[in-house]
Amino acid sequence: EPIDLDADNAEIDNARGVSVYTGNVVLTRGPRRITGDRMTVHLREDDAGDQALDHVVVEGEPAVYNQRGGEDRRPIEAEAPRMEYYASGPERVILLEGARLTQGRNTFTGERIEYEVAADRVHARGEPETGRRVQIRLFPDDEDNGDDE
Amino acid sequence: MLPDKRWTFRIVAVILLVAVGWWVLDEETHEPIEADPEEAEQRPDYFMETFTLNATSEEGTPTYRVTSPRMEHFQGQDLWLMEHPEVTYFADSGEPWHLRAERGRATNNVENVHLQGEVEIRRAGGSDNLPANVDTSEVHLEPERRYAETDRHAVYWRDGARIEGVGVRAYLDRELVELLSEVRGRYDAPE
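^ Those are the sequences you sent over. The predicted structure of the assembly is below.
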């Protein structure tokens, strides 16, 4: 699926291949949707030798990630001041600077949370230096394949 | 009979002399007919075919070039009208930018250029830069600054990416293209 971005304005740096979208920014890709105030799109050369979207740095107050549920998938909702969305390798979203994610009824909070889209897997991590810990609330009857470190 | 003929000849000669004299005098006092100013402004005072203008910096390096198969100059407004103009911006590094259109107007000694009609901005990819294309319907240029702007809908595109919006400011010397409103970007999924 292609990746679409809508915004109030955009600045394209043709030398570095970086584009910055600002103002009511919405990224959509199939059932996934990210909103934020500012998104910086970074490219890389893909296997075909073309410049392809590598990752997007999302900033917001907060930035929000939504993924509709499906037959075998629970809906995901996550928010954090800062996110990094990787379009491949595998497709994933990394929530930074104090994140919260809900997967169905399960909730995860922590300094850094990574959600792998294809595997539908959550990794949550605290921050030993500041003592900020991971908190997970699971509902055993819901199938859970998240793990914490 | 003879004297009558001679008299007739003398009278006719005098009349002719008076008439010519009056005509000459009248011609001098009579102001030359001024071309109607408006009409003068509509008509080119000169035109060039296969026209090329090369601008260089103080160090002599090329900064921009303007070419057109036909350019007409209108003195009244110091205006150049160009058919199928192409403006080339030479970059400090990387490939040059080419800006083409169906019609162009240049004023103020080519300090301001206005391109209209299927405007294409093209840049080949190079070791120092990505390829870039911008399509719009109208653009205003300031060649000295290698700057371009429009308030029209515009599409920036290259392989795998297409970003459109309304209004553009392009600082091509700094390789920066700003889309000013209603921006929509689409990126192909990476392979």
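Residues 2-29 of chain B form the longest helix (28 residues). The radius of gyration of chain B is 30 Å.

Shout if you want it in another format.
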